[in-house]
Predict the structure.
Amino acid sequence: MLPSVSRLCLVPVLLTGLAACSVGPDYKKPDTTDITPATWRWQAGVPRDAAPKGEWWKVFHDSELNRLQALALADNQNMRAAYARIMQSRANARAAATDWFPNITANSRDKRERTSGFLPTPVPVKIPSAQIDTFSQTFDLSYEIDFWGKVRRNFESARAQAESSAADFNNVLLTLTGDVAATYFQLRALDSDLASLRRTIALREKSLGLIQQRFNAGTIEETDVLRSKTEVATAKAELADIKRQRQEASDNLSLLCGVPATNFRIAERPLHDTPPVIPAGVPANVLERRPDVASAERLVAARNADIGVATAAYFPAISLTGQGGYLSKDTGDLFKADSHVWSIGPSVSLPITGFALIRANVRKKRAAREEAISSYRQAVLSALKDVETTLAQTRYRGEQAAAQNEALAAASQAAELTRARYDSGAVGYLEFLDAERTRLQTERQTNQVTAQRFIATVKLVKAMGGGW
């Protein structure tokens, strides 16, 4: 036969089996069919089975970018903080789950006391003073039977909160990797500008030497020499400014990667490639992948469960307390059969005057759910807008890049022809100078458009949730 304490532990377990109902509304995912289109405006859905997932940045086939992403994933402090928030939410969910089970504590109490010789008694009998020893070893049990599903709803809320925190972590992860890629491509565009300016400075210094020789020979005016020196100095000033911008971009990358800026180095490499084509899929798939949408939906589930927790306060709270163990005045008799003690005390509590407060709390929880639903629908709309915007960016950046490349080819050809005409004396130095300036300006604009194409592709991947 089971000991009394063990039998007491079985009581709440049996009663829990009887508690099959849960007050409050069961959760249903909010409907968004009225705001979710079937296809995108800018790009039709295409098969995406063969496209890479997870480490999405590897689609760019850039080993240096892969290295930086690995550093960021390992050492970024914001990501570590987000992971710590996940651990907190999961711990809260585990704490909420403990309410399913009885709370059992072991107690050991040893006491020696001296009683008064003048104790008040109902009859005029003097009780002499005495010293009393008490030794007890007991197990205490307390348990609130979940007849109305309060514990169940509370656990649902905590679990949904933990899932929302996990989605928030994925959103931090996606934002981090996206920021690393975008900053990296901007830095590469600055590398292209550095290369352009260094070529320009070399050409202008060479031209300055030739112009100086022609001036010494008396074939041109000194103003041409001064203008040439001005252009060389101006290009060097622009070069210094681009170096500053590159250092700032490098420092930003070091922060994202969790590396001290002093120890961070990244070699120069101009950006010349074209970005990969990213299939957009369909809107419904994007909404399943976006971590911010997932987080908002889980918060709706948590707020819905909170209504059940608040509603349970209308109903009686049925608790069970019990105690079993041994009590004796001598340690030698403590564990004998006659020292065995136990008690059991079920209790029921029902609010009498607090219904107005309970009703207000239920209304508050229902309003919180409506707020969460609105936030979820807003997250859906924001996700759809992000994808449409980035699809438009990738399309128009591509058109812009094609036109810009044509402009660069024409400007370079015009600069070469003007140089030849200047060398032959057919045109003046100002016309030659204007052609050179146009070529450099067009080349730098081309560098920026190329970088913006890569950045638009990164934004598209982020808008689609990091995978496709």
In short: Residues 221 and 261 are 50 Å apart (CA to CA). The chain has nine helices and four strands. The mean pLDDT is 84.
